[in-house]
Recover the amino acids of this structure.
């Protein structure tokens, strides 16, 4: 408990958010390299291997952490923001795409949260960012999140980022919801995460929902996002003139073309 | 993180008894994220919050045990008193081990399906991963098998190709190489080379064709099926017909042992195997291969084989073996500018030694000097 830093925070913005963290003297926050938006004078920035939660683990531990971070597709380094000044200082981290920042108080959530990879934004120093490996082949292949997810462990605050609008839902024991693959942001480890075959070829082919659903069975809390980044990226890519998209503005056919293909 | 907070705490002080464990409890009135509570097993059931104000007991027969959670191996005890849904999640190994070790007989029937499910799940998982790994590694396994059994595979493939087909292939390659070779058809040299070669290879299944090409390089090469090309540089560098006969015998053995063919198959097989492994099928294999034929290199063992078998050819043709050794020796000692024949036929000391040993062992045979005045043969070559 002693090594966990208790931080105060405030989230600004509605669709493109940033989180401002207030650090007491000698308190520190850890963030993915490149996530910082601004910081007060007096905050020292230090780049470390791994997540800064285990500074004394030695060379081998550092190497292991490095491998894990490579697996989750994160950068090898994390940045620690330490308040070296006398008073309270602020540092802010911005979300990389439209969506919501989710504050997770880990000690209130049983000490552990599993979230989709790349969603980690920042945390109080002492929170460890590890990997949670999906052992079920089917879930890893078709569950929408791959085999590797991030595991946040500790009892301080951690901030993760979700695309679009966030939905937080508490599942009672045995309660099940079906989720489109890719919309899962985070879940408590007590939640069972499985996949279910849609079962109807017609709806799989023409329903546009894919062949599988993710099923989440309680007890525990789950966080869902309305707009996975990949979905947004697909639409943007499809609309790009360079890739055959036809959404350019003010073209010769512009108005007519839009009438013809409607507006989706 | 408090370590005493998790798992089984058998020596923890306070109101925990010696046989309590902790687990995440979900239920009406509790925090939706679940609350980590202590629990104890006694005769009738699981006692939650033992010794506390909220102490309650769940009889074993009301419990259902299921596997679940993110890792699919957590132990979820659930019960529904009066329609309310309660559950106790044991996620960490110490707590699970504790429950398994201390479970009373009354809970055993519920635990068995859980154990079975875990075991089956692990089994399925291992099977699935093995299949996936095999599937992903198949091309590399193929490559490894090829690497391991190269010689056997190549020999087998070569044995499937008839001499006729090999000769057809050789014809094709020779036709392709022809424009870049200045073949000499007139004069003494081609006739003499043909006679020596014919004498060496009489009675072999191949119809050898001997050519002389105008090229200052000291070199000679063989194409599958029997085309052997000798460069004028080599003829000029030799001091006697026996020396040239040694080289011809060596080259003829490359053909007879199908070294070029095997090297070609080897090369082709490698490319195919690599193409499968790397998933790259950008054709153009055959043409490239044919172009490379003239500069094919053989391994040291192939060269030694050609040396020793070539010696047999010399013996059958009653040609003195000294020329073979002295010619390679001479070239090796000459040094200076790199000699093409040596770069494609690396003359190692042990190769020469092996040749000498073989000659000594077999004893010399009755040889007839070749009836050619080498100086006059050389004189008929185009001057450079």
């Amino acid at each position: 408990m002693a090594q966990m830093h208790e931080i105060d925070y405030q989230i600004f913005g509605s669709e493109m958010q940033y989180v401002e963290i207030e650090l007491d003297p000698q308190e520190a926050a850890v963030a993915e390299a490149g996530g910082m938006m601004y910081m007060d004078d007096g905050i020292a920035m230090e780049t470390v291997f791994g997540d800064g939660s285990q500074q004394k683990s030695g060379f081998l531990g550092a190497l292991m952490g490095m491998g894990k971070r490579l697996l989750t597709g994160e950068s090898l380094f994390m940045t620690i923001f330490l308040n070296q000044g006398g008073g309270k200082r602020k540092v802010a981290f911005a979300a990389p795409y439209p969506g919501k920042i989710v504050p997770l108080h880990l000690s209130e959530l049983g000490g552990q949260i599993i979230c989709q990879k790349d969603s980690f934004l920042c945390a109080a120093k002492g929170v460890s960012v590890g990997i949670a490996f999906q052992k079920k082949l089917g879930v890893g292949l078709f569950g929408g999140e791959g085999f590797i997810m991030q595991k946040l462990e500790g009892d301080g605050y951690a901030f993760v980022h979700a695309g679009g609008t966030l939905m937080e839902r508490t599942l009672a024991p045995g309660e099940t919801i079906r989720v489109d693959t890719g919309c899962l942001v985070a879940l408590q480890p007590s939640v069972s995460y499985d996949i279910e075959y849609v079962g109807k070829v017609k709806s799989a082919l023409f329903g546009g929902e894919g062949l599988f659903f993710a099923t989440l069975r309680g007890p525990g809390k789950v966080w869902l996002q309305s707009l996975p980044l990949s979905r947004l990226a697909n639409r943007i890519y499809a609309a790009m003139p360079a890739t055959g998209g036809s959404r350019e503005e003010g073209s010769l056919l512009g108005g007519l073309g839009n009438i013809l293909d409607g507006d989706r | 993180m408090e370590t005493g907070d998790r798992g089984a705490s058998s020596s923890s002080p306070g109101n925990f008894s010696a046989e309590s464990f902790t687990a995440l409890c979900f239920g009406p009135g509790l925090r939706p994220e679940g609350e980590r509570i202590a629990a104890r097993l006694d005769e009738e059931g699981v006692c939650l919050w033992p010794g506390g104000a909220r102490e309650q007991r769940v009889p074993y027969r009301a419990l259902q045990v299921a596997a679940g959670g993110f890792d699919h191996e957590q132990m979820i005890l659930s019960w529904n008193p009066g329609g309310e849904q309660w559950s106790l999640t044991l996620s960490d190994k110490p707590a699970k081990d504790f429950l398994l070790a201390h479970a009373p007989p009354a809970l055993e029937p519920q635990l068995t399906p859980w154990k079975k499910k875990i075991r089956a799940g692990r089994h399925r998982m291992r099977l699935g991963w093995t299949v996936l790994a095999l599937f992903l590694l198949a091309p590399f396994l193929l490559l490894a098998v090829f690497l391991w059994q190269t010689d056997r595979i190549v020999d087998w493939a070569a044995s499937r190709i008839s001499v006729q087909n090999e000769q057809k292939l050789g014809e094709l390659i020779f036709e392709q190489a022809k424009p870049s070779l200045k073949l000499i058809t007139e004069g003494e040299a081609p006739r003499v080379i043909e006679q020596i070669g014919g004498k060496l290879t009489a009675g072999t299944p191949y119809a050898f064709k001997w050519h002389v090409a105008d090229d200052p390089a000291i070199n000679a090469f063989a194409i599958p099926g029997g085309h052997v090309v000798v460069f004028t540089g080599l003829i000029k560098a030799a001091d006697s017909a026996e020396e040239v006969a040694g080289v011809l015998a060596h080259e003829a053995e490359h053909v007879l042992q199908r070294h070029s063919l095997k090297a070609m198959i080897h090369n082709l097989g490698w490319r195919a195997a690599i193409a499968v492994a790397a998933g790259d099928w950008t054709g153009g294999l055959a043409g490239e291969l044919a172009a490379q034929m003239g500069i094919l290199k053989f391994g040291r063992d192939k060269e030694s084989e050609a040396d020793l078998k070539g010696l047999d050819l010399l013996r059958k043709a009653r040609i003195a073996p000294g020329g073979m050794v002295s010619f390679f020796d001479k070239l090796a000692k000459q040094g200076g500018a790199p000699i093409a024949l040596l770069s494609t036929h690396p003359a190692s000391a042990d190769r020469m030694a092996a040749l000498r040993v073989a000659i000594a062992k077999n004893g010399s045979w009755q040889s007839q000097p070749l009836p050619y005045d080498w100086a006059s043969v050389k004189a008929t070559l185009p001057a450079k």
Observations:
- The first helix of chain B runs from residue 93 to 102.
- Residues 1-17 of chain B have pLDDT under 50 and may be disordered.
- Chain B touches chain A at residues 1-2, 6, 24, 26-27, 31-34, 36, 68-72, 74, 76, 78, 85-87, 89, 91, 121, 125, 128-129, 132 (CB under 8 Å).
- The longest strand of chain B covers residues 20-26.
